[in-house]
Amino acid sequence: MLQAWSAQRVRAAEEALMGELADGELMARAAEGLAEVCRARLTASGGSRVVVLAGPGNNGADALYAAAHLADGGSDCVALQGGWPLAIGDPESWLAAGVRVVAPDGDWVTALADADLVIDGVLGIGGRPGLPDEAVAWVDAIPDSAYVVSVDLPSGQDPAGETPSDTGVFADETVTFGVAKPVHLLPATEPAVGRLTVIDIGLTVQGAPDVERLDFADVARLWPVPTDTDDKYSRGVLGVVAGGEDYSGAAVLCCTAAVGAGLGMLRYVGTPTPTGLVRSAIPEAVHGDGRVQAWVVGPGLDTGSRARGSKAQLDVARAALDSELPVLVDAGGLDLVAGRRAGPTLLTPHAGELARLLTRLEDAETTRPEVAADPLGHARRAADLTGATILLKGATTLVVPPTSAGLAVRSQNDAPPWLATAGAGDVLAGVCGALLAAGLSPLDAGSLGALVHGVAADRANPGGPVRALAVAHGIPETVAHLLVR
Ligand SMILES: NC(=O)C1=CN([C@@H]2O[C@H](COP(=O)(O)OP(=O)(O)OC[C@H]3O[C@@H](n4cnc5c(N)ncnc54)[C@H](OP(=O)(O)O)[C@@H]3O)[C@@H](O)[C@H]2O)[C@@H](O)CC1
Ligand SMILES: Nc1ncnc2c1ncn2[C@@H]1O[C@H](COP(=O)(O)OP(=O)(O)O)[C@@H](O)[C@H]1O
Ligand SMILES: [K+]
């Protein structure tokens, strides 16, 4: 599991560690690790010209010390200086190693145009939103051919990872120190991070992390694997209330994924058309209301429908929400969420559905762009309003428990962009629902489900287009693959 701590908590840990070490030792470790990564990338590309974007703080000093190592090793290193002194650390040592400093009025344009590798040391965890003017011009002038390594985080991006910025650096790789920070894992800023490399500098942070990301080893740790003593009921029965006369296919996608994830048994509750489809696609499904360990309510559900069978289906959906059982609520089912319910609850909106849910619950408009501008803040607001865990779907999927639970937010980024296709959400609901039925918490079910769903999308057709049904069919093989790794 990859874990991230806030900048504030990293600083506290850093100060404690610095108290035990010689002056400058921590920065020296960071710079050595950074230089090692840059050296490897230069060797791989055959390049040798390095340009440092040197900011006013310790982030700039890290980059300059790393450049001194690279210059020692024979690279051609140039540091661009803005309208601030390069006073942190020991400037004489960089100059002695052969790092050439280009002043703000010097020819930094040519230096950048020739760069094979750019080290972005403008701002780190001490950065306020936005870049200094000089740095805006530098970033605009970075050639596409240069490999951009950001020090600690892409400068100009929000260290807390809450709000996106178009003007910050978008790195090919980010080299961070000790532990990851929220900026590296959260959806608003992760697209700017590129490949993430964490350098060990001997730093550990006490207490629960702020953000976590499950990896493949966590699948083996958390996935409900049946044993000899299990039977279909002990493994978990999932009830699915999904599909209507308009979106009938959602029921097939959700149920296919749910049985593929390894359920003891599936119960399906639908209107006539999707019921017929489920009968032929999933002969193992049992039809109608009955005893279950968890419910999925909502994929393809039309709560306003007057079609035959709709009222009876809606009655089961409402009874599920009124029960104390674990419930996953998706798509149309979100319109039935009225506030807190008694049992464990996982809501799985995309950004538009989250905006609609908040608008209804708060009786004040929230728009989809507002959710996109602060995904974590809005997911957290919905979690605190409903007491539910919110799984906010997207390229990076967030799973956010209510603040009162005191748990880390999970953030998964396992899917190829090809997964942005109709019906993919119905498949996710089926996988997560199966995990709820097996007894996992909404946080584990949501994050583990998102991981497996994303990997299944990739494995269904690596590097190419996928359709939702192929992802659903690929779930059993993906689970087996992840369990035997
Ligand atoms: N944590 C660790 O374990 C380790 C941390 N290390 C390194 O330390 C880095 C943090 O260093 P840091 O505290 O000096 O902050 P950093 O981001 O360099 O910038 C602060 C300076 O920038 C300025 N400034 C800020 N925003 C601005 C803006 N928008 N536009 C213009 N100016 C702006 C700000 O000005 P002021 O606020 O004073 O006005 C101040 O002068 C960290 O990211 C990592 O690289 C490693 O060396 C060792 C291990
Ligand atoms: N750019 C993207 N990259 C990777 N996965 C994505 C991207 N956009 C969306 N997804 C994933 O695709 C699925 C889409 O779900 P959803 O929007 O509910 O679709 P539908 O309602 O049609 O089933 C979610 O799991 C989401 O996380
Ligand atoms: K940086």
TrEMBL record:
Cofactor annotation comment: Binds 1 potassium ion per subunit.
EC number: 4.2.1.136
YjeF N-terminal domain: residues covered: 10-209
Natural source organism: Pedococcus bigeumensis
Keyword annotations: ATP-binding, Isomerase, Lyase, Metal-binding, Multifunctional enzyme, NAD, NADP, Nucleotide-binding, Potassium
Alphabetized SUPFAM superfamilies for the sequence: Ribokinase-like, YjeF N-terminal domain-like
Tagged with keyword Nucleotide-binding: yes
UniProt function note: Bifunctional enzyme that catalyzes the epimerization of the S- and R-forms of NAD(P)HX and the dehydration of the S-form of NAD(P)HX at the expense of ADP, which is converted to AMP. This allows the repair of both epimers of NAD(P)HX, a damaged form of NAD(P)H that is a result of enzymatic or heat-dependent hydration. Catalyzes the dehydration of the S-form of NAD(P)HX at the expense of ADP, which is converted to AMP. Together with NAD(P)HX epimerase, which catalyzes the epimerization of the S- and R-forms, the enzyme allows the repair of both epimers of NAD(P)HX, a damaged form of NAD(P)H that is a result of enzymatic or heat-dependent hydration.
A Gene Ontology biological process term: metabolite repair
Cofactor(s) the protein requires to work: K(+); Mg(2+)
Location of the YjeF C-terminal domain: 215-482
Annotated positions binding AMP: K393, G394, A395, T396, T397, G425
Taxon lineage: Bacteria, Bacillati, Actinomycetota, Actinomycetes, Micrococcales
Complex and partners: Homotetramer.
The organism's place on the tree of life at top rank: Bacteria
Enzyme class of the recorded protein, top EC level: lyase
Catalytic activity: (6S)-NADPHX + ADP = AMP + phosphate + NADPH + H(+); (6R)-NADPHX = (6S)-NADPHX; (6R)-NADHX = (6S)-NADHX; (6S)-NADHX + ADP = AMP + phosphate + NADH + H(+)
Keyword flag Metal-binding: yes
Record's protein name: ADP-dependent (S)-NAD(P)H-hydrate dehydratase
Gene name as annotated: nnrD
